[in-house]
Amino acid sequence: MKRLIILTAALSTLSTQASFFDFLKSHPGANRLINNASNIQFGSDNTVGIVKENTKGQCIAAIHEAIQQQKDSPNSLGVISAASLTSKAYASSLEGSYTQNFKGDGFFAKNLRRGLSNRTMIKVNSFSDKVIPHEISGCSKHSEIQSVRKIEFKGKVCRSITHQLASEKYRVLFCEKDQTAYTDFLELDSKIIKEYEEVK
Fold it and tell me: Distance between CA 64 and CA 68 in Å, rounded?
């Protein structure tokens, strides 16, 4: 309730000329407050909504649906195209150690970027939370990063981030010179180049 009152007070100070996102950029305290309010979700079209958190069971069910989607209609790589990035991912943006929760810049798709270095320049343009379970409302707290690796996959060099939610595992792939992030629920064959260290 206290957060809602603070947020309401902050929003009432907005001029009609400024957008909500301009306000957040110029007021880091309000930005932090919103980042920490797990029931507030931002859309890629600059919309803000209150969403209901899913249960652990609902999060697991979402993974099962994504597994079926990958079996029924994979892309040309055999995985699911999950997100569009603002620019191609360069090798330097895919290097570095990681933390369980992404602490880098920006609040949009912060859970999707879990497993990337906190210094990465990778930004997300749009994504489908249906195929990124830890981006579904309430599911991130049930998932844990198991490993982060540099891999060769279908002729691409990718940063592979393996998540575990209950007994289910899946991975998110960010690949060099590629503007799409992928999810793989079927553990398709790949070659490990190296493993990255978790910073605790």
Answer: 6
pLDDT tens for each residue of 62-79 = 999 999 999 999 999 999
Per-chain mean pLDDT for the chain:
84
> How far does Cα 154 stand from its chain's mean position?
23
DSSP state of 86: S
What is the dihedral sign for C-alpha 108, 94, 169, 181? positive
User: Hey, what are 34's tokens?
Assistant: 């919103």
Q: Are 17 and 30 in contact (CB under 8 A)?
A: no
Burial class (CB in 10 A: 0-12, 13-18, 19+), 180: middle
Q: Tell me the pTM.
A: 0.75
Query: Which among 148, 146, 141, 135 has a CA at the least distance from the CA of 108?
Result: 135
Q: What is the mean pLDDT of residues 36-52?
A: 58
HSE value, Cβ hemisphere, 13 Å, CA-based, for 128: 12
